[in-house]
Design brief:
The chain is built from 4 helices and 2 strands. Helix 1 packs across helix 3. The chain has a two-stranded antiparallel sheet. A hairpin with a 2-residue loop joins strand 1 and strand 2. The longest helix has 22 residues. The chain is mainly alpha-helical.
């Protein structure tokens, strides 16, 4: 269980934000906290569900097709 908690913490604090920062260039048509959303405002203020959706889209655009990811 401790390993799982450490994995979750690493994912939340490092992997997710690094992946989003590397892949997401611009956000259009989304407002957070009364202003236009930016990469940083999404990371700081977006609900967990939105963060997960953005991460999935960014990770999916990493250039590896599903077959390559398995290898």
């Amino acid at each position: 269980e401790a390993v799982q908690q450490e994995h979750t913490l690493l994912y939340q604090q490092h992997i997710l934000p690094a992946t989003i920062r590397a892949a997401l260039v611009k956000v259009e048509g989304l407002e957070l906290d009364g202003g236009e959303a930016t990469v940083e405002s999404i990371l700081e203020h977006a609900p967990d569900e939105l963060l997960a959706e953005v991460y999935d889209a960014c990770a999916g655009a990493s250039g590896l097709v599903e077959e390559d990811q398995k290898n």
